[in-house]
Amino acid sequence: MSVGTERRTERRIVSAWFPRLASDRALRTRPVEGPFALTLQVGNANRLHCLNPAAERAGLERGMPVSDARAFCPGLQTRTADPAGDTRFLHALRRWATRYCPWVGIEGEDGLVMDITGVAHLFGDEPLLLADLRQRLARAGFSVRLGLADTRGAAWALARFGEGEAPPGRMAEVLAPLPVAALRLEPATATALQRLGLRTVGDLAATARAPLTRRFGPEVMMRLDQALGRQPEQVTPLSDPPHYGVRMTLPEPIGLQDDVMAGLARLLERLCAKLQAQEAGARMFRLTLRRVDQDAQEVELRLARPLREAARILPLFERGVSAVEAGFGIDQLRLAAVQVEPLPVQQVSSVPQGRSDQLGDLITRIGTRIGLENVQRFLPADSHIPERAFLIAPAAWSEPGGAWASLRPRPLRLFPPEAIGGTGPRPPARFRWRRMALETGRATGPERIAPEWWMSDEAWRSGLRDYWQVDTRQGRRLWLFYTPQAPGWFVQGEFP
Description:
5-stranded mixed sheet, Alpha-Beta Plaits, 20 strands, Dna Ligase, domain 1
């Protein structure tokens, strides 16, 4: 093997550091003139999180309280930081960087690491690759510092402490003048080394290893060896999330519903196999039908339960597919699982377990007509107040509640209290309710319910209520209550 071939196969790592990732991302859509910073709540103080170059030139620094920064720089403009959004954007940058090499990983909260071994010649050479990377990022509005070396540690050090390129095999020479913090050491460790007079990587490399290891542990020498290539350090790329989508291009256009359903059945089998491999289930599917005139129609299916059984999902598409206008024909079908949830494998039992599945399918069928959010169920709530003893929740996103715990029976129908007169503590013998003259036949009670003092409810501010179950001679079974503080009788519910 020739010397030139050996150099082309040597490992080369690029470290890309975005020193102002958060502020650059915020200014892409809404640019400002002058000093600008993103703020973040840290404990009880609002502090500067990321600054633009104008704010840095004004003397502001990260971590400074916003009140102090405004006193120091009255023209400072601020916005609230979004760390979660910055993380998502960094992952999007990682996917974009795969145009240069397949091995791209995340480096901390504001950097990328790329293994460009064997791919630099596709862009001319290494300097041209770095120039193209820097130019594209600058065009997008991002400031970046790049480091290129044989090791991940050396590339990281060059990107953050001395932007540049280390020729193959010369990491020790390039890293020697850099501070010891360039070895990715903890700030306290780097400060302690500087107090001992070891200010640069060259000073550290020339010092005896045993005393440093006894004092600081193995981390310092391990980071030095990783940067110089004496100890291996891998670049682990992040894998893209599974793509739950399949498509089918037809040689001849189709227009019949049966033909579309047949093609959909094939797509469902492939997509459900992907879901099965990932132990996931889909809550929402989107079927896109492309017509020969390049128009596209979509059919969405929202499920009450996550599913991955093609035989159960296919019939649920019939209503949506029947409403599709095929025009001059459909030449492509695309099926995607838009909303995916974990669905681990369950133990197979000899006891039939199809009841909940059938209920979920029924809710889905009704939901396709009136909307899943309109199919609701009652759930028990932890409260002895009648109006608060239940919750109404969409059946598709809730599980049936447990037993309805109650010391006394509750009416099936509950409505706002309706006054019927009367003043005594016993139910009235005769009363009128909703234009009906009723007579009390049997009365069971009282059940005293006190208001929940920690809740503010206008209807319960009158105080205690004594509830009675009253069977009238006319056949009505009513739920009445009496208010001792302001004597009066009310009807609030009716039993079946």
